[in-house]
Predict the 3D structure of the following.
Amino acid sequence: MASIALITCFSVLATSFISAALGMGGGMIMMGIFAWMLPVAGAMVIHGITQLSANSFRGFLLWRHIYWSGIGWYALGMSLTAAMVLSAHIVLEKHQLFLMLGVIPFINLLPKLPHFDFAKPKHAVLCGLLVTFAQLTAGIAGPLLDIFFIRGSLDRFAVVATKSVTQSAGHIIKIAYYGPLFLAMEESATVTPRLIAIIVMTAIVGTWLGRFVLERLQEHHFRKLCSRTLLVVGSVYLWRGLQAVF
């Protein structure tokens, strides 16, 4: 119990810092760590609580930069996908989860990938459809969400702030979906209210510290770091998922 709590808190601090600095990557790393320690449903719930804390606090810090017009269109797509996934009761096996986590970052490398921009209503709706599906099945959607931001017209502050709102909404749905499944498992006893409180506070601290890096990064360094971080982490998860297949 103590070792799980220590690993969890350290992971939350580090990955919340990464997410606050780059607007991506941290949640993906965190999901892999939780999936290693817990059943898929448990990883989804703890990851959702942690990321909801970090994302909502990040949105609060940068609320002036949130692109609210796009959020409305995103919510439309999110609602449609959430209704479909929840009605189908989709839950991946652990190796399937790692494979999906590993594949998502490489979507950005596909040839002739359309130029998406979250500032365009149709693109925001499509973003809500695809990203919500990834969040409710793989637990994360940051790399997929980046397709709609990384080459778009919003600056880095608007990117991080707006993404924090979209991600927070997705994590709320994820917690509601996987929560009852996890509570029915024996492993849920290891996740105490005290541990959850520590996780929330650690996520906030990591987010607060990461903001100072965001303010000092230049635009071209910001985008380059984002891309490289995701590809490295994705490769590790692909290897982990393929181990179970072969």
In short: The mean pLDDT is 82.
